[in-house]
Amino acid sequence: MPRSNRCVLTTVRVCVRARCARCGGVAWLWPDVAAFRVLKSLLGTSVESYEGIANRQSRLAQLESNDPSVGVATAFNRFYRDTGLFGVYAAADEANAGTSFKKVAEAIKASASVSAEELTRAKNQAKMEYLSSVDFTCGLRNDIGSQLLLTNARAEASAVAAAIDAVTAADVERAATGALASDVSVAAVGAVANVPRYGTASKLFA
Question: Which residues are bridge partners to 91 per DSSP?
Fold first, then answer.
């Protein structure tokens, strides 16, 4: 049966372990948690409706702008009691899935290096994202619950913003380098024939 000309999407999630050193007190104020917030904003997103035009200078936005075949990609992080995740969701058409994966992997690997201008922009974006997320009741409840589950304590939004402001380029490098030293995890759905197999994919982060 012949295949249609309809675009077939490949969706991939690739992530590494976000190693957050427990420093006592409130988790949201730990230096590594703040650094991973900045790392997420450094990579950003190519989905304009997700974070708005303000983050079109992020690395993933620039990647998609320079090469539309990369598809769409959005950085994410998750924090848990004893570990965390840092990575990227990406979606591309089947023919470009392999190239898209490799370029996203390169972007994640390069996140350990950040310029002063990028750092300032990423910190401002990270603060905006966090403060916007707790500016409505549902988001505030989610934030309070997440913090209490981690350390049974909560930081005020102003303190979280101050922790983000305190992040340095060395903090970003340390967080990214530690994460990249862990084993990469890859999950793909859709037309996955052109997505690199795990052995090949993991070497892209070596």
Answer: 11, 72
For the beta carbon of residue 174, count every other beta carbon within 10 angstroms.
17
Convert the pLDDT of each residue in 165-187 to its tens digit. Answer: 999 999 999 999 988 988 999 99
**What is the helix, strand, coil percentage profile of the chain, to 5?**
55, 15, 30
- Radius of gyration for the alpha carbons in the chain, expressed in angstroms and rounded: 17
Dump strand ranges (E) for 18-106. 72-79, 84-93
Among candidate residues 94, 140, 134, 118, the one with its CA nearest the CA of residue 39: 118
Instruction: Please give the structure tokens belonging to residue 191.
Output: 């037309």
Angle between helices 31-43 and 157-165 (to 10 degrees): 70
**Interval 53-70: pLDDT, tens:** 446 778 998 888 888 888
